[in-house]
Each structure stands twice: as C-alpha cells, then as structure tokens.
Design a protein that fits this description.
The chain has 2 domains: about 80 residues, Glycoprotein, Type 4 Pilin, CATH 3.30.700.30; about 70 residues, RNA polymerase II/Efflux pump adaptor protein, barrel-sandwich hybrid domain (OB fold (Dihydrolipoamide Acetyltransferase, E2P), Beta Barrel), CATH 2.40.50. It contains 1 helix and 16 strands. The strands form 3 sheets. It has an 8-stranded antiparallel beta barrel with strand order 1-2-3-4-5-6-7-8. Strands 9-16-14-11 form a 4-stranded antiparallel β-sheet. A 4-stranded antiparallel β-sheet has the order 13-12-10-15, with no helix packed on it. The radius of gyration is 23 Å and the shape is elongated.
C-alpha cells in the first residue's frame, strides 16, 4: 500500500506491505524490513530491525497518528494518494479562482493591513481580529491582489463573515 506521510515537517511517499509477521517499508530510496509483534493492548508493537529491538506505541490523534518511541511522541500525518491528489487540485483551483479571508470567530477588527489594489503573498497577514481578548492575524493562503475590503477597523464581525477578497495574480502581475 502506498501512503503520503508527513513526519517532523518532511513529507514522503511511503510504500509498505506485510508478509506474515514481517513489515516491509520503502521511503526516500530506503528499504527497511522488520519483524513485528502486536502486543496485547493493541497500540504497542515490538519491532526487530537489523537485530535491534524497538518498542513502538502507535495511537490515533486529531491529525493522524502519534508514534511513541524511546520516550518521545512523534506526530505523523498520513494521507492516501487520492487524498493528496484531491488536496493539490483543491489548492490549485482556489489559487486560480481567488480567495476570501473570513473571520474564524466573532470579534472586532483591530487592524487592516491591506487596501484595495495591494499585491499580497501567500502567508501574508491582511487583517487582525480580536476575539476573547486575543489578537488573531489572518493571512492569505495564495498570492493575489486585494479586490475588496469588506470591513472597517473597529467593526464587529461574526464567525464566517467575509473580510477581504483577493483575485489571483495573473501573468505579468507580481
């Protein structure tokens, strides 16, 4: 089976299969074989890799899995190749169609960092909303040009309310 795995910020395509009590992994040009035994609690595995024994705990988390090894817990995000393709297509479609920055929760706009006509880059903060006594910088996911600023500073906003709209950057714009 093939999966996309993100581990400590690195993403890799991983192929794995089992043959009886043997686990075979291939990732980043590396080939790893391990004998494994699932221990009674269902989340703990004993692995034997190159003659060395490892006890690994694998449990579900909100983002995928948590792998416990030698006292450390490592978050691991796992995606099926189809999910990876859909995510890439969705991101490309959003970038091509523009973007709307919306309020994630009710609050008050405390700062506008852009105006209509400004060019913005992916990750750039465009508005600051205060909610529950915390200031939240809202950023854009894609490069673009600000086409609408739909709120003013000190305006109360509701969750999901559109605040800023962007058009995609075309050919000669930057």
């Amino acid at each position: 089976m093939k999966l996309w795995v993100t581990l400590e910020g690195r993403e890799a395509e991983v192929t794995f299969r089992t043959e009886g009590d043997r686990l075979i992994l291939e990732a980043d040009g590396r080939h790893i074989e391990a004998d494994f035994v699932r221990l009674p609690d269902g989340e703990v595995y004993s692995l034997l890799i190159d003659g060395r024994s490892h006890v690994v705990r694998v449990s579900p988390s909100a983002e995928g899995l948590e792998v416990g090894l030698r006292g450390s817990v490592i978050p691991v995000e796992v995606k099926h190749p189809l999910e990876k393709m859909l995510q890439a297509a969705s991101g490309a479609r959003a970038a091509a169609c523009g973007e709307t920055v919306s309020a994630p929760m009710p609050g008050v706009v405390v700062a506008l960092r852009v105006a209509v006509g400004n060019h913005v880059q992916a990750g750039q903060a465009v508005v600051v909303v205060e909610a529950m006594k915390m200031q939240n910088e809202l950023s854009v996911a894609h490069d673009g040009v600000v086409t609408e600023v739909l709120v003013a500073e000190r305006a109360a906003v509701s969750a999901g309310q559109a605040l800023i709209r962007l058009a995609p950057v075309t050919g000669g714009s930057a």
